[in-house]
From TrEMBL:
<dbReference type="Pfam" id="PF07943">
    <property type="entry name" value="PBP5_C"/>
</dbReference>
<dbReference type="GO" id="GO:0004180">
    <property type="term" value="F:carboxypeptidase activity"/>
</dbReference>
<keyword id="KW-0732">Signal</keyword>
<comment type="function">
    <text>Removes C-terminal D-alanyl residues from sugar-peptide cell wall precursors.</text>
</comment>
<keyword id="KW-0378">Hydrolase</keyword>
<keyword id="KW-0121">Carboxypeptidase</keyword>
<dbReference type="InterPro" id="IPR015956">
    <property type="entry name" value="Peniciliin-bd_prot_C_sf"/>
</dbReference>
<dbReference type="Pfam" id="PF00768">
    <property type="entry name" value="Peptidase_S11"/>
</dbReference>
<dbReference type="InterPro" id="IPR012338">
    <property type="entry name" value="Beta-lactam/transpept-like"/>
</dbReference>
<feature type="signal peptide">
    <location>
        <begin position="1"/>
        <end position="29"/>
    </location>
</feature>
<keyword id="KW-0645">Protease</keyword>
<keyword id="KW-0961">Cell wall biogenesis/degradation</keyword>
<feature type="domain" description="Peptidase S11 D-Ala-D-Ala carboxypeptidase A C-terminal">
    <location>
        <begin position="290"/>
        <end position="380"/>
    </location>
</feature>
<dbReference type="InterPro" id="IPR001967">
    <property type="entry name" value="Peptidase_S11_N"/>
</dbReference>
<dbReference type="InterPro" id="IPR012907">
    <property type="entry name" value="Peptidase_S11_C"/>
</dbReference>
<comment type="similarity">
    <text>Belongs to the peptidase S11 family.</text>
</comment>
<dbReference type="InterPro" id="IPR037167">
    <property type="entry name" value="Peptidase_S11_C_sf"/>
</dbReference>
C-alpha cells in the first residue's frame, strides 16, 4: 500500500512538472537581440534665436527637441486663433455645425479692431469661409463671428477655449477672447502652443489643408497668408502667425520631410522677417539632426503571457496607440525595446487593462515608456480550470 502511494505521488509530481514545462509563463522582462553596432551620429548644440521663447517639437512623438523659456507665460497675440479654429473644426466633426452653415455678422464682430476679413454687418457668411478668414487672413472679425455663432458670445466661447485647454493639459494657457487681442489674463506658452498645433494636425487632418492656403479673397479684397515660410520652404504647410506690440512677432509653423513632421514655435521676435528666419533655423536644425520612426502600430501584439484561471491560457498583449520615437539621425537601429510584464496575471482580465510597460532605450537610457495593455478580454474559466491552474501555480512557485 505504501509502495502504491509513493508511486502515485511520483506520477502526479512528474505530470505537474511536465505541465509546468508546457505552460510556464513567458519571461517578464524581455529584450530583443542586440543589434550590430553602428557609428553614433553627432548632434551639435541647438541654435540660439533672437526671440523671447521657442520650442521645436516632433509632431508624432511629441518629443521636445529644442526649447527656451518653453513654459514662460507670454501674450500669444493671434496664435490664439489656433484654438479658435480647433474648436470650430471640433464642432464640425462632431456634427454640431456644418461648414455650409451661415453665421450672421454682428455689429460687435464688425467693429472688432486689428487684422480683419472685412465682413459686412448683417451679412451671412458660411462657417468654411469664416474659418479661412481666421486661419489665412487672421481676421478678428471672423473670429468673433464664429465665437458668437458657436457659443453665443465671446465670453462663453472663451470658456470653451479654456475647457479645451484643460483637456489638452495646457498648464500655462488662459484665454479671455477668441482673437488674441491684449488682455492681462490672456496668455500662453511656446510649449502649450506647440501642443495645440499638434492637436490641430492629428485630431482633424481633414481640415489641416486650409493652413497651407496662401491667399484668400473676401469682399473683393485678396489677402495673403502671413506665414512667409509657405513661399520659402516647400516642406512648410501651416499653421499661424501672430503680432501685437506686447507679444512681438510670433509664428507657429509645421513642416514635413522624409516622413518626419516638426512643429516650431517662435515668440517675441522683432519683425515679420525675423520670425520667419528664426523659425526656419529651428526647422532646419531639426530635420538635419533628428528623425522619427513609427516603432509599433496601435494594436500590435508584442507578447502572449500566461493567464491563470482564465477561459484561455494566454492573452494578446500590446500597445493601445501608435508608438513613435524621435532620435538623433542615424541611430534608429541602436534602439532597444524592453517589455516589463506583470509577474502573475490572473483572470478575469479586461480589454485595455494595463499589464506592463514597454520601455524604449538608447545607450541604456529610457527614451520613452508606454503602457502594455490587454488587447482582448479573458473571462474566468470554469471551476475545474481554475482549480487546475491553482495547482499549477502552487507547484510552479517551488521553481520560480
Amino acid at each position: 500500500m505504501r509502495v502504491f502511494a509513493q508511486s502515485s505521488l511520483l506520477r502526479v509530481v512528474l505530470l505537474v512538472t511536465l505541465c509546468i514545462g508546457v505552460l510556464a509563463p513567458t519571461a517578464h522582462a524581455q529584450n530583443p537581440p542586440e543589434p550590430s553596432p553602428v557609428p553614433s551620429s553627432m548632434v551639435p548644440s541647438a541654435p540660439e534665436l533672437a526671440a523671447s521663447a521657442w520650442v521645436l517639437m516632433d509632431a508624432d512623438s511629441g518629443k521636445i527637441l529644442v526649447e527656451h523659456n518653453a513654459d514662460k507665460e507670454l501674450p500669444p497675440a493671434s496664435l490664439t486663433k489656433m484654438m479658435t479654429a480647433y474648436i470650430v473644426e471640433r464642432e464640425i466633426d462632431a456634427g454640431n455645425i456644418s461648414g455650409d452653415d451661415e453665421a450672421t455678422i454682428s455689429e460687435n464682430a464688425w467693429r472688432t479692431g486689428g487684422s480683419r476679413m472685412f465682413l459686412n454687418p448683417g451679412s451671412k457668411v458660411s462657417i468654411d469661409n469664416l474659418l479661412r478668414g481666421v486661419v489665412i487672413q487672421s481676421g478678428n472679425d471672423a473670429s468673433v463671428a464664429l465665437a458668437e455663432h458657436i457659443a453665443g458670445s465671446e465670453d462663453a466661447f472663451a470658456d470653451l477655449m479654456n475647457q479645451q485647454a484643460a483637456r489638452m493639459k495646457l498648464e500655462h494657457t488662459h484665454f479671455m477672447n477668441p482673437t488674441g487681442l491684449p488682455h492681462e489674463e490672456h496668455y500662453s506658452s511656446a510649449h502649450d502652443l506647440a501642443v495645440i498645433a499638434q492637436h490641430i494636425i492629428k485630431d482633424y487632418p481633414d481640415h489641416y489643408e486650409v493652413y497651407s492656403e496662401k491667399y484668400f479673397t473676401w469682399n473683393d479684397i485678396r489677402q495673403p497668408n502671413r506665414n512667409r515660410l509657405l513661399w520659402r520652404d516647400p516642406n512648410v504647410d501651416g499653421l499661424k502667425t501672430g503680432h501685437t506690440e506686447a507679444a512681438g512677432y510670433c509664428l507657429v509653423a509645421s513642416a514635413k520631410k522624409d516622413g518626419t513632421r516638426l512643429i516650431a514655435v517662435v515668440m517675441g521676435t522683432d519683425s515679420d522677417e525675423a520670425r520667419a528666419q528664426e523659425t526656419q533655423k529651428l526647422l532646419s536644425y531639426g530635420f538635419r539632426f533628428f528623425e522619427t520612426q513609427k516603432l509599433y502600430k496601435s494594436g500590435a501584439v508584442l507578447n502572449k503571457p500566461r493567464v491563470w484561471g482564465g477561459e484561455q491560457d494566454t492573452l494578446r498583449l500590446g500597445v493601445a496607440n501608435d508608438v513613435f520615437i524621435t532620435v538623433p539621425r542615424g541611430r534608429i537601429d541602436e534602439l532597444n525595446a524592453q517589455l516589463d510584464i506583470r509577474k502573475t496575471i490572473n483572470a478575469p482580465v479586461e480589454q485595455g487593462e494595463r499589464l506592463g510597460t514597454l520601455k524604449i532605450k538608447l545607450d541604456g537610457k529610457v527614451l520613452d515608456e508606454r503602457p502594455l495593455v490587454a488587447l482582448e478580454p479573458v473571462p474566468e474559466g470554469g471551476f475545474f480550470k481554475r482549480l487546475w491552474d491553482s495547482v499549477l501555480q502552487f507547484v510552479y512557485g517551488f521553481f520560480d
